[in-house]
User: Fold these one by one.
Assistant:
Number 1:
Amino acid sequence: MTAIIGGFGAALCWTVAMLCSSRASRDLGAFPTLAWVMAVGFVIVVPFVIVAGSHPTGVEAAWLFVAGAGNIVGLLFEYTAVRSGKVGIVAAIASTEGAVAALLSAFAGEPISAGVAAVLALIATGIVLASLEQTDDEANRRSTKAIVFASCAALSFGVSLYSVGHVSGDVAFAWLLIPARLVGVVVITLPLAIRGTLRIARRATPLVVGAGVAEVFGIASFAWGAQDSIGITSVLGSQFAAFSAVGAYFFFGERLRRIQVVGVAAIVIGVGLLAVLRTGP
């Protein structure tokens, strides 16, 4: 039950983060949105890092830096993608981060089973189908741009996940949360503030706060559920892509073509199957 609650909670939190950040990005732009989201998350996480005590050193710190940088770059690509593309498509493509991490593991020498290879092919097919837009030239251009940025987000998130995997068993959980927020605050929030360009509109304030809080609590919920079952938690957590597509339909009126719905479904199913195969006995 812990895995089910944790995974479902993570999916809901990440859905809230996606929906809030998509609206904030269109109001503020990708960089200011990311700056505020990371600042909010930093304020939440720092007390837990202080309580955690001893800090990582050497190789652990290097992997955490890569994880944080990958997460920040991924979010920047994601926030840029939702400024021009549909939330459901962007969320589905970004959710393939686990598949990217699996490929990186393969390149590093970890064998991939035939089942995992087949699922990766299913995910790739889903991305192609989800990208099939049929409107005017300008809309097609914007859709293509969003898909490219969403794919870059998935690659960056995959690098982050792969890096976290190297140190997740060696450092306190709080230290897995702080790198992205620390890098984000130092590299994006502070420079924007110093230049006087860290702007925010009143209507965007609750959106960036909601996204920042949801990002942190989503990870915390996932970690809590994974203590019971990594597989179940991963499968349920990955469903944020489907939840985001549904949420975008109801809140933003976004509609997908039937072939795109098939593509999103293939991605969601593929990501879920991949989580099962990667964490099975």
Note: The mean pLDDT is 84.
Number 2:
Amino acid sequence: MAKDLHRPVDIAVDGSEMVYFTEVPDPGVGGGANGVSSLDLDTGVVTRLHSGEPEPTNIAVDRDGDLYWTCKTAGVILRRSNGKVSVFRDKLDHPSGIAIDHKGEMLYFTEVPTPGVPGDQGGKNRVRAIDLRTGALRTIHTGDPEPTDVAVARNGNLYWTCTSAGVIVEAKRRGGRDGRY
């Protein structure tokens, strides 16, 4: 599909035509070769959509085609909408994994400022959610030693990998649209 990439890290698919991916050949280095690109599955053409972030880690695409990605070392989630990139959320603590529910209402992400350190030993890692309509930020879970990536099922249940513990964790959704777990 695509070759000669520079350390591709994450991937997301929009329908069946476009693949989006992050490349991080220089982790933590702003202004370098790190970036977000698309791969047109019909033509095989790779297009650079954004460059210069120090560590564009994981990426998600919503049902409208807007892209969201975490930038771990900058502590931000960026959004690309209508061809323009902007900071969607800042002042985050090493955001890593990212997912959007199938309705396009909630964005979930992980923060891993203390990789490998469980909460009962002072770890500050967590799984969080942002309501995409209101911007409200909520913590879903804390205490795991390294919640690296996150996925959301159609029924709203969350799943995340915990790299250092070697497990996948499930949080079952309870209740209505507010997404309580």
Note: The chain has two domains: 1-92, 103-181.
Number 3:
Amino acid sequence: MAHRQMNRLFRFLRWGPYEDAAGWLRGLVITLSAAVFMSVVGAFGSARMSMVPRIAYWLGLMLVGWIWGAFVSRYFFRVLRWPRQTWLRIAMASLALSIPYSVVVGYASVLAFGSHFELADIPELVGSVTTVSVAMVAINVLVDRQSVTSASTEPAKFLERLPLKLRGGEVWAVEAEDHYLRLHTSKGQDLILMRLADAISELEGIEGAQVHRSWWVARDAIADAKRGDGRATLTLKDGAEAPVSRTYARLLRERGWI
């Protein structure tokens, strides 16, 4: 029970492109590291405070910003399908994060330093918060992509099962047909005797997902995605159409596939 509740918490608080507990913990470590750095350098006038309250000040601000950033980044990196350029998503997410968060920072500064903000001070405040937001979002995205690249250096075990005529090709999809699997690859199609569940476990290392009880699809194999009448269909590079069941539709929407 406790394990399930912890997994729910991880899913709730995951930062942007992160999908698991490891990604959540990476985001937390980055946030805490940033709080310590800001405290040590006395950023944005916090040097006037002694070290203990300074750490508490930055720790509180960074944690609040990280939780709010989890919602913002989830939308821009997992739900919104446009734009595809990562730098534009970072810019948009940072702006959406910094505008309301500037209010939090301003209020915290009033409480901690007794600051008084004039109308002319608002652009400087928003600019400072936006700068930090861009840095935090970018660092999280880069660290996450680096971790994905590192985790994918091992070739998928499933590639060893490809028939000789398909060896060296890209696996686009695996479709269950009775006791067999139809392999959709860049070199054509073929059948092998295997269960889909076993194949999915051996496909780890290739970015993809199960989209139906009878289909696993690689992310790079999708040529088009269509939604209609409450159902979605993925068109692959070889022209095959993979149905998306409601069981998996929500996850695919979060990933930006449909």
Note: The first helix runs from residue 2 to 13.
